[in-house]
Amino acid sequence: MNEVLIPDQALVSLDQDLDVMLSSIGGEIVIDPNDPEYGVAFRRYLLFSRWPSLLERGELHATAEELLYNSYYWMLKFSKLHERKHGYDAGIEQQVFKILENTHCNLDWNVVEQLTNLVETELGAGP
User: Fold this and answer.
1) Which residues constitute the domain of residue 109?
2) Which pLDDT tens digit goes with each residue over 94-123?
3) How far apart are CA 88 and CA 80, in angstroms?
C-alpha cells in the first residue's frame, strides 16, 4: 500500500499545524483528537479530509485519489479503535462509507479492499 498511503512518520511534522487548526474550530468536533487510543487516527483523518493543504507545509503531495484513500484508511482505523473503547457507533461507521460514496474520483475497489485488510491486520481481531 506504499503507493497510496502517506507514511505516518512523514505526517508527524504536521502535528503542530494540525493543533492550530483543531483549536480554531473549538467545540465543533465532539471526538477527542488527543485520545491516547484513537486520537492519532482521528487527527490523520481530519488532516486528509478537512485540511489537506497542510500537506504542502510538510512538502508532501497527494493526488485526489491518494487523499481519498488516506482519508478512508485513517477513518476506518479510527472507527475500529473508537469502537474498541466505546462500543459500536452507527454514525461513525456510516461516515466511513460516506467517504467512498461521496467521492468524485474513480475508485479502485481492489485498493479499498487492500486498505480494509491492512487495517484489520494492523489492529488484529475485532473489538
Assistant:
1) 8-123
2) 999 999 998 888 899 999 999 999 999 999
3) 9
> Rounded to two decimals, what is the model's pTM?
0.92
Cell of 10: 512523514
1 inside domain: no
Write b or e for each residue in 82-96: b if 16 or more Cβ atoms lie within 10 A of its Cβ, otherwise e: bbeeeeeeeebbebb
Mean of pLDDT values over 25-42: 89
Query: At 110, which helix (H) or strand (E)?
Result: helix 109-123
As for how many domains the chain has, the answer is 1
Q: Is residue 2 a part of any domain in this protein?
A: no
